[in-house]
Write a structure and sequence with these properties.
The protein is of the alpha/beta class. It has 7 helices and 9 strands, in the order H-H-H-E-H-E-H-E-E-H-E-E-E-H-E-E. Strand 2, helix 5 and strand 3 form a beta-alpha-beta unit. Bound molecules: S-adenosylmethionine. The site of S-adenosylmethionine has 23 residues, from helix 1 and strand 2.
Amino acid sequence: MPLPSHEAATGAAYDHQAQRYTDFATHHHTTHPLHRALIPAFTDLADPARPVADLGCGPGHVCADLHTRGLRVLGLDVSARLLAHARHTHPGPAFVRASMRHLPLAPSTLGGILAHYSLIHTPPDQVPETFTEWARVLAPGGPVLVSFQSQEPGTHTEPFDHAVAPAHRHSPEHLVRAAGAAGLSEAARLLVHPSQDLRRGWAQMHLLLQLTTVSGRSPNRSVPAPSPSFLT
Ligand SMILES: C[S@@+](CC[C@H](N)C(=O)[O-])C[C@H]1O[C@@H](n2cnc3c(N)ncnc32)[C@H](O)[C@@H]1O
């Protein structure tokens, strides 16, 4: 499916800075343990019988981390060059070029969804439909781990000068409300203190959600086993 224009533009911007971004992101992941702190909980909550998806996976280092924890992993991104790097560097997970708003997956396919600093590039008015799409492909009870630059409590989502592509600093309340409307309820949150962000002094939020209700379906309904090929 062709990408909507702003997502194609985001992908092209990351293509342009692929090596620079890869160096930054992989170094950040290995040197900042607090930003990885909820990944073990996400792994334990994910249904091991189903694949998990890293939406906006970039160079694939978080996919590789999840893969070493024993999960089947699908990385999706809009940047062809970052995906090429990911496939070359991390042979375990599968990597696909697709939008996180239009996932090429059947309903209830995934055992979990992780979006590490990628929802920041979704315009705020598209966040509700994005969560609805995630809820569609997630199995009941499945965890969602969303990480983002956080606004102060009580303040609004606003744009910031991201080095690669237009981005927003989200208000946790705004995201929790939008997620709740899609059936994704807050299970836990980790706020990394602003003093840990030496560059901008911003809080970073790692928000763990779980799919509790799905419109038109009972939350506890039994779900058929996924087909071996989980891409539609
Ligand atoms: C800040 S980077 C984060 C990459 C990686 N998750 C990490 O933690 O290093 C944002 C990533 O999200 C991807 N992205 C942005 N909008 C997207 C969308 N609508 N669908 C899929 N990927 C998207 C970008 O191409 C980029 O790789």
